[in-house]
Amino acid sequence: MDSGPCLKIGPVLIPAKTIQAPLAGITNLPFRLLAKSAGCGLVYSEMISSNALAYGSRKTLQMLAGIPEEKPVVVQIFGADPAIMAEAAAIVESSGADIVDINMGCPVRKVVRTGAGVALMRTFKTAEAVIKAVRRSVKIPVTIKIRSGWNASGRQALGIATIAESCGVDAIAVHPRTAMQGFKGKADWSLIARIKEQVLIPVIGNGDIVSAADAEAMMKQTACDAVMVGRAAIGNPWIFEQINHLLCGKPVPSVDLTRRFRGMKTYLRMSVNYLGEAQACRMMRSRLGWYAKGLPYSSRFRESINQLRTEEEALEIIDKYQAFLHKKLVI
Ligand SMILES: Cc1cc2nc3c(=O)[nH]c(=O)nc-3n(C[C@H](O)[C@H](O)[C@H](O)COP(=O)(O)O)c2cc1C
After folding, report:
1. pLDDT digit string, tens, across residues 240-256
2. Segment 43-78, tens digit of pLDDT
3. CATH 1.10.10.10 at 7-247, yes or no
4. Least enclosed by CB within 10 Å: which of 56, 99, 108, 140?
5. Alpha-carbon separation of residue 229 from 14, 61, 131, 154, 258 (angstroms)
C-alpha cells in the first residue's frame, strides 16, 4: 500500500499516518482488521482493565487475541496501581502486542472513581508512578492517551506530556477535551500544537476528524505527527484510505456501494470467525447498520437485521438490500 510517509513509535514502523482510536466495546479484532484493510496505519484495542488482566480473567485475556495481519497493534490498559499496571503491561507484551498504551483519558465515572483514566491527569505523582512502572516492566514502546485535563486550563496536559517524555514514553495521543466536557463542545486543536512544540516524541492528534480534509487541517494547524480517528471510522473505515491519499497529494477516492457492501460482508465473516456465529450475529444486529448510514432505506435494512441468528440469513439480507439499491439507483 502506498500511503505516504510513515511514522516511528520507538522502533515500531507505522506504514501510514492514520490511526484508529481505541473505542470501548467496538475496536475488537474484526473491527481493527477492517480498519487495517482500509489503509489504517495503526490500530488500538479497546481499553482493557489492568486488574482483570493481572487477576487472569479468561474473558479479559481473550481480548488480547490478535493476528499478524493487524500488526502493528497497540493494546490499551487502564488502572491506577503502578504494580498492577506493570504486571498488566508485561502480560500485554507477552501476548505479542507491539505497543502498550496507558489510558489517561477515560472520563467514565466507574473508571475515574478508582483513580484511573482521566483521573490520572489530576494526580501527577500517581501518573508518574504508573508510567515509570509500566516503562520498567516492558521492552516494547509505551504510549499514553490523554485529554486536555480535568478542567479548562490545559496545564494538566502540558504537565503530563513533560512527565511522560522524561519517563521514556514513546508517543502521546491527545484528545483535547477536558474530563468535564465529555464529548461536548469542540476539541481544542491548539493544545495539540502546544504539546507538539513542547516535546520531541511523536504527538498524535485526535478529536473531531470526520473527513480527509479535517485530518489535513489538523496536521497543518498542529504539526502533529499522525492523526487518530474515532467516531468517524465507525461504519466508515475508508476514511483512513481517504486521509492517506489526501496527505500524499493524491485524489481522494470515493466509496461506492460495492465497497460498502463488501466491507459489511467482510466484517460479518471476520466476526463469525472470531466470535462464533451466535455471538457475532447478535452483535451484527446493531453493527451492520453502521455501514448503511446515509443510504436510502437504511432504516428498513436496520429493522430487517435486528433479529439476525445466522450468517447465511445475514448474507441473504445484505445481498437483497444491495441488489435493491443497485436497481433503485440505476433507474
Ligand atoms: C464509544 C466510544 C468508546 C471509547 N473508548 C475509548 C477507550 O476505550 N479508550 C480511550 O482512550 N478512548 C476511548 N474513546 C475516546 C476515543 O478514542 C477518542 O479519543 C474520541 O472519540 C475523540 O475522537 P473522535 O472525535 O475522532 O471520535 C471512546 C470514544 C467513544 C465514542
Report:
1. 999 999 999 999 999 99
2. 999 999 999 999 999 999 999 999 999 999 999 999
3. no
4. 56
5. 15, 26, 24, 21, 23
Question: For the whole model, what pTM was predicted?
Answer: 0.96
Give 133-178 pLDDT, tens digit per residue: 999 999 999 999 999 999 887 779 999 999 999 999 999 999 999 9
Domains of the chain, residue spans:
7-247, 257-330
Mutate to test the pocket of ligand 1, among 144, 160, 175 (most ligand atoms within 8 A of CB): 175
* pLDDT for the residue numbered 2: 44
E strand intervals along 171-309: 171-178, 203-206, 226-229
- Phi first, then psi, for residue 125 (nearest 5°) are -65, -45
For residue 265 the three cell numbers come to: 460482508
CA of 112 to the centre of ligand 1 (A): 15
Ligand 1 in contact with 239 (CB < 6 A)?
A: no
CA of 206 to the centre of ligand 1 (A): 9
